[in-house]
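does this look right to u?? magnesium ion version
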Amino acid sequence: MGKKEYIHIEEIGEFGLIEEIKKMFPDRRRNETLVAIGDDAAVLNIHDDFLTLLSTDNLNEGVHFDLFYTPLKHLGFKSVSVSVSDICAMNGEPLGITVSIALDSRFTVPMVKEFYEGVKIACEKYNIDLIGGDTTASYKGLFINTSIIGKVEKERVAYRHGAKPGDLICVTGDLGGAYIGLLIMQREKEVHIEAPLATIKLEGYEYPISRLLKPEARLDVIKILRELDVVPTAMIDISDGLASDLLHICTSSNVGCVIYEDKFPIDPVVYRTALLEFNLNPTTVFLSGGEDYELLFTIPEKYGPLFENHPDITIIGKILPPEEGTYMISKSGNRYELTAQGWDAFRKYRRENQ
Ligand code: ADP
Ligand code: MG
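got this back:
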């Protein structure tokens, strides 16, 4: 018997680990399984008229949220949004969600109900039902799992693969807000710990803070695409950061890409706060700040005119043949290779706990 390989998870990271798991399940046992591991949601063919979508997400205290500055109602809302976003990323319509919680002894009945108030507001917003869950105790910490089911017509499904050279790259809303919101909340937490009586300063930062605490899935954009009769050739939701998620599309589609810095939609408060208060390049925040839950998608070039000056959608670049690489053209015209420096569960967690 050979010696067992000893590899730390941080060495291969979250995506490397998912690849390892995927390799262990190369076969499909069921004809119904169209897409298993590797997209924003699994795709099952169990109905003649549409495809069934299924996706699951964990939100863990201390890793994904800090209860010091996260109201439970917002957390309930966010838990649902994060899952709805994965159904949107398949160009689908969400139907129902399960929400499971593991609670430690700090939690009271009103606290749990507060969390579910947020779940309820989100269910109303996205027009879905809470269809179940599981309730357990945890030794320490709040753990949330959501599983969502949705559907999409066969001719409208959008995968991460499917982008073609010449396609335009589109992004919804603006990016970087959630990350700046996180930095603001972490800063105020430090202040509070150092000086508990000092006033916490949140005025003027409402937008980035709301992006962190109460992100909204872009179901509205899915409806806009439907009304315009446009089916994206590829789509993903931006949870890890634009660069990382765009590279997912490029790898899955076997294409290259170019994006233009002067086109990046960044909110003015986010831009100013990044630059002046955190000494961060707003472009880096745009490319690598995660958790905005906007959509990134590609469309055939002929649809370009539909999205020029669109209030919700910005064209930021173009898909290229694979040999041309994946890069950004800066405002001054220089070429920078895209690297995935966004969220990687294990690498980031390790960095923060070193
Ligand atoms: P997202 O950020 O959109 O939630 P992830 O990056 O978490 O997507 O997951 C990418 C793909 O890997 C999805 O198809 C997901 O179902 C799959 N996946 C992630 N973790 C596991 C796991 N532990 N076992 C099987 N599949 C997994
Ligand atoms: Mg996703």
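The mean pLDDT is 94. idk if thats expected tbh
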